[in-house]
UniProtKB/TrEMBL annotation:
Full protein name: GntR family transcriptional regulator
Presence of the UniProt keyword Transcription regulation in the record: yes
Organism this protein belongs to: Kineococcus rhizosphaerae
Species classification: Bacteria, Bacillati, Actinomycetota, Actinomycetes, Kineosporiales
Sequence similarity: In the C-terminal section; belongs to the class-I pyridoxal-phosphate-dependent aminotransferase family.
Top-level taxon of the source organism: Bacteria
HTH gntR-type domain location: 20-88
The entry's keywords: DNA-binding, Pyridoxal phosphate, Transcription, Transcription regulation
PANTHER family: HTH-TYPE TRANSCRIPTIONAL REGULATORY PROTEIN GABR (PTHR46577:SF1)
MF GO annotations: DNA binding; DNA-binding transcription factor activity; pyridoxal phosphate binding
Amino acid sequence: MASLSASSLRHLLGDWHDDGPALRALADRIRLLLLDGRIPSGTRLPAERELAAALSVSRTTVAAAYARLRDQEHLHSVRGSGSVLRLPAGEQPAEAPHRSPATVDLTRAALPAAPEVQAAVEAAVADLRAHLPGDGYELLGVADLRRAVADRYTARGLPTTAEEVLVTLGAQHAVGLVCRAVLTPGDRVLVESPGYPHALDAARAAGGRPVAVPVTAAAGPGSGGWDEEALQEAFSRTRPALAYLMPGFHNPTGSVMPADQRRRVVDLARRHGTRLVVDETTNDLAFDGEVPAPFPADVVHVGSAAKSLWGGLRIGWVRADAATVRHLAAHRAPWELGTPVFEQLVVARCLPRLDEILVGRRRELRSRRDALVTGLAAQLPEWEVPHVDGGLALWVRLPTPASSALAVAARRHGVLLTAGPRFGLDGAFERHLRLPFNADAATVRDTVPLLARAWREVGTSVPAPRPFEVVV
């Protein structure tokens, strides 16, 4: 059974106080950490006395908060075994696969399947016949898909062969595989803050120690992005073994790294012996402006069909030199034995037509972004909404540090949100909220008023803003 120390829970809690009773605020924040996956179900919480000391509150406050969680069936205590967080029957974490029809899910930045996927599935059924005489275990991936991925990189200006492509079970699997193959416990890993939370999880699971570099959302065209000084300092001071970046419509900020900064990052990585990993999952989703160009050949590129085609296909890939591809394939065997053949054949059918498919996807995303931006301006004008030219989400800045409280309140109105701290380290980003624009205009019209209602509920019960909310 996993255990959480008092200091670790303190970091996860962040700024948990509000103007109401401390016991309620503490219980609600721990419940949110459980629901959005930051604390796994089945984790043992620290003893009351230890947590009280870490939080500088009375033991009575912690005991009352634990009692509230027990009353809600989120905490189970056994004498001699401690207190264990568990999801009660019928309640699901924010990323669970099934949803009530009455619930609006704003935790996932993803679209339904592109219309062209259905025809690709039907064609792939016939393609499968040629593979049935084999054993079906493809550690490197089906040759047809590897060639299709290589052809796409070549067309984008990065000459690539099939031997330089490894097919994976989605981009998250690719990132985890690279981390396991490259890192040794204690290695420094440069990550973005805010950043994609599952990439951070993968680095930590491989024993990496994160080094955060700030990324900001754009207030207008040409603004926002990666802190240049922090990037240079992180490379020179920590000499990270691996750097993970999402430079094309970054998740969650939507920022795009300029070409000149990309060249400087590549130079920094080469000078300090850092393996640079670039996640291009959202790179093709440019609905205003140009699709960012690929990085040089010595950079590890990670791609996926999830955002462009459909998440249900669970197909991703790594583009790297042939030696790295073989090295990564060798590290797969202890964990899994390859990617399902049929889904690879579906994606192999789609990739040659991807530019055509993306025309419709970009039109759809632009429309959905506009609907959400318009709705927020009308219902929540005090929220700062960034300018994005692509991607799948808005990194909204709130007037007060109340993202977690808002996520709890929104659930009562049937709206699932991922609070800002899920994208940061140690409870940061309470002033921010990621809002995907994957809902159609009709759903947005119904949902934004619910968000406004939830915001009004928490608007009078949040602490005054601190002068320095995030220190990185």
